[in-house]
């Protein structure tokens, strides 16, 4: 059966394309697909030295996850310093200047940002499955970079108590032109709110 594999960051650069198709046996697992990818030009060496997370049809998966014909398997490299993507989920206040500064690039003619704030309440409390939330947001940003041709993307989300007047979430993206920047920022925040395992506690009203 045929499985499409999406590649990001260093994997895409090494393979020279953003996806490949592989043939695996019926009932094959993610681990079997990784074994098949080891033989792909430009990928084998990178997969040996770079730890990746796997997602099947946009849900994180384990090596034992079984694949079906037509599935999309995505390989998500870790987010690190110097990469075009920055993610942080934690209790520290968010700095618009610092996060926006992370996406400024000489090749980008536009930077778009979105901030969300508690509203109509003195504060909101947030809880997160931190590690998974950061990985999910990183995957979302990587897909937005690819889909909208962004130069760079960054996102931070607060946890714990967030007073009114302080941002609970911030997305910043850069792109060659404003249309791509606006579209990338909108998709990123919409998907972060829908997909990242982060919860508002004790209130129904928020940004």
User: Can you give the mean pLDDT?
Assistant: 88
What is the percent of helical residues?
25-40%
- Helix segment tally: 6
Compressed to H and E, one letter per element, the order equals: EHEHHEEEEHEEHEEEHE
C-alpha geometry: globular
In CATH terms, what is the architecture of the largest domain?
Answer: Alpha-Beta Complex
* Residues in β-strands, percent: 25-35%
Number of self-contained structural domains: 2
Structural class of the helices, strands and pairings? Answer: alpha+beta
Sheet with most strands? 5 strands, mixed
pLDDT below 50 for ≥5 consecutive residues: which ranges? Answer: 203-207
Main sheet strand line-up: 2-1-5-3-4
Number of strands: 12
CATH H-level homologous superfamily name of the largest domain: Molybdopterin biosynthesis MoaE subunit
Brief synopsis:
The protein is α+β, with helices and mostly antiparallel strands and 207 residues long.
What would the keywords be for this entry?
disordered C terminus, 207 residues, alpha+beta, 32% helix, 2 domains, Ubiquitin-like (UB roll)
Tell me what the structure shows.
- The chain has 6 helices and 12 strands.
- With 207 residues, the chain is of the alpha+beta class.
- It has 2 domains: 75 residues, Ubiquitin-like (UB roll); 117 residues, Alpha-Beta Complex (Aldehyde Oxidoreductase, domain 3).
- The strands form 3 sheets. Strands 2-1-5-3-4 form a 5-stranded mixed beta sheet, sandwiched between helices. It has a 4-stranded mixed beta sheet with strand order 6-9-11-7, sandwiched between helices.
- The radius of gyration is 18 Å and the shape is globular.
- The N and C termini lie far apart (44 Å).
């Amino acid at each position: 059966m045929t499985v499409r594999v999406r590649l990001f960051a260093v994997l895409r650069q090494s393979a020279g394309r953003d996806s490949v198709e592989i043939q695996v046996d019926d009932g094959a697992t993610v681990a079997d697909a990784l074994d098949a990818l080891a033989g792909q030009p430009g990928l084998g060496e990178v997969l040996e030295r770079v730890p990746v997370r796997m997602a099947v049809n946009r849900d994180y998966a384990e090596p034992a996850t079984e694949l079906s014909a037509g599935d999309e398997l995505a390989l998500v490299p870790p987010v690190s310093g110097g990469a075009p993507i920055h993610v942080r989920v934690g209790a520290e206040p968010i700095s618009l200047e610092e996060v926006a500064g992370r996406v400024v690039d000489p090749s980008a003619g536009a930077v778009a940002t979105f901030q969300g704030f508690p509203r109509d309440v003195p504060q909101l409390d947030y809880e997160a499955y931190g590690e998974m939330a950061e990985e999910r947001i990183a995957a979302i940003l990587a897909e937005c970079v690819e889909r909208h041709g962004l130069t760079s993307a960054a996102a931070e989300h607060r946890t714990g108590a967030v007073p009114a007047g302080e941002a609970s979430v911030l997305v910043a993206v850069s792109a060659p032109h404003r249309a791509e920047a606006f579209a990338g920022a909108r998709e990123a925040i919409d998907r972060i709110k829908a997909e990242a395992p982060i919860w508002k506690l004790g209130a129904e009203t928020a940004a």
